[in-house]
Amino acid sequence: MEKALMDSALIAIRDCLKVVEGEKLLVVTDTELVGIGRALVEAGRSLGATSVIMEMQPLSRNGEEPPEMVSEAMKFADAVVCPASKSLTHTAARRNACKAGSRVATMPGITLDTMVRCLNADYYAIADRTREVTALLDKAKVARVTTALGTDLTIPIDGINAISSTGLIHDPGSFGNLPSGESYLMPAEEKSHGVFIVDGSMAGIGDLNGKTPITIKVEGGYAVEITGGPEADELRSKLEAVGKKAFHTAELGVGTNDAAKIIGNILEDEKVQGTVHIALGNNMSMGGTFDVPIHLDGIIKDPTLELDGKVIMDSGKLLV
Predict the structure, then answer these.
(1) Upper half-sphere CA count for residue 163 (Cβ side, 13 Å)
(2) H or E element: which one contains 113?
(3) What fold is seen in the domain 2-118?
(4) What are phi and psi of 88, to 5 degrees?
(5) Is 254 helix (H, G, I), strand (E, B) or coil?
(6) Which helix (H) or strand (E) holds 86?
(7) What is d(CA 265, CA 295) in angstroms, rounded to the nearest whole number?
(8) What is the distance between the alpha carbons of residues 8 and 5, in angstroms, rounded to a whole number?
């Protein structure tokens, strides 16, 4: 397995981040994922990059800011990769690093199995599929997500640009997850309405297979009612700890990675082709104004996704 880890680490650094000899690579990790962090820094060194690793204590939640010394170091690297137990994607640290020109790949909660399996996917095919979905989202005014289980959520997206997370993070200032494969955007603020039922997995909680789905009622863009089993109570508690803005609908995402599967790890789960995810909390990375230290995605299985009435996903089958 050590060889498989090193091979996938090399793909991440050489192919996905396009690190070359003479560049500065920073690996930001924590005590839970330091083994993967070390593999990534060794991959950078094998390519002739000046490679540094920073190990921190695990943060308390997805979207929490890392220590200032980490944030500052990120701005001085050509490429940054973040295998950490909590996500740094929706943080000012990541945004500021990108503004400084760094290419940033975040790998929140990545497992060895996910790294080995999903980083060996065909990222050029995933990129083409993802960009096609992004083009459709860019043109649409209203998205609607429905499922046989009872999801029926209307999401205004007029004039909002979608983001292609292709896994190919080659341009200065670009960013994305690794492994990747999703097209996503923020809903128009305070306008979504309806209900969505999370039956795949929930960030910060895990796989919902065999458990009571989480039903979330949305009015004026906010989750006003969260019901279900103990998992619903846990989600509500996480959001209440941050405040009202944490309940705001932050993201509509469409998975495009055909190698990914739902395992209870949101990094991989939200990339699964044939799923849609809705997030609550921070939307700053997508151009929004909700700057809160939390961002939690809920995966919806077998959805139908309509854009201005045109079906682009039918009961989990992506039609692009």
Answers:
(1) 21
(2) helix 112-118
(3) Thermophilic metalloprotease-like (3.40.1830)
(4) -105, 5
(5) strand
(6) none
(7) 14
(8) 5
Computed on alpha carbons and rounded to an integer, the radius of gyration of the chain in Å comes to 18
Distance (Å, whole) CA 19 – CA 222: 41
Structure pTM?
0.86
C-alpha triplet 185, 188, 193: angle, nearest 5°: 105
Give the DSSP H or E segment for 299: strand 295-301
DSSP assignment of 11-49 equals IIIIIIS---TT-EEEEEEETTSHHHHHHHHHHHHHTT-
Report the SS3 class of residue 97.
Answer: helix
* Separation of first and last alpha carbons in the chain: 35
Predicted confidence pLDDT, tens digits, the chain (320 residues): 589 999 999 999 999 999 999 999 999 999 999 999 999 999 999 999 999 999 999 999 989 999 999 999 999 999 999 999 999 999 999 999 999 999 999 999 999 999 998 988 888 899 999 999 999 999 999 999 999 999 999 999 999 999 999 999 999 999 999 999 999 999 999 999 999 999 999 999 999 999 999 999 999 999 999 999 999 999 999 999 999 999 999 999 999 999 999 999 999 999 999 999 999 999 999 999 999 999 999 999 999 999 999 999 999 999 98
Between CA 17 and CA 111 the distance in angstroms is: 19
Q: Are 14 and 47 a contacting pair, CB within 8 Å?
A: yes
Question: Residue 275: enclosing H or E segment and its boundaries?
Answer: strand 275-281
Angle at 97 between CA 92 and CA 100, to 5 degrees: 125
Would you list the domain boundaries of the chain? 2-118, 123-318
> Do residues 81 and 25 lie in contact, with contact meaning Cβ atoms separated by under 8 Å?
yes
Please report the DSSP string for 221-243 in residue order: TEEEEEESSHHHHHHHHHHHTT-
Nearest to 295 by CA among 238, 218, 230: 238
Residue 83 and residue 40 in contact, taking contact as beta carbons nearer than 8 Å: yes
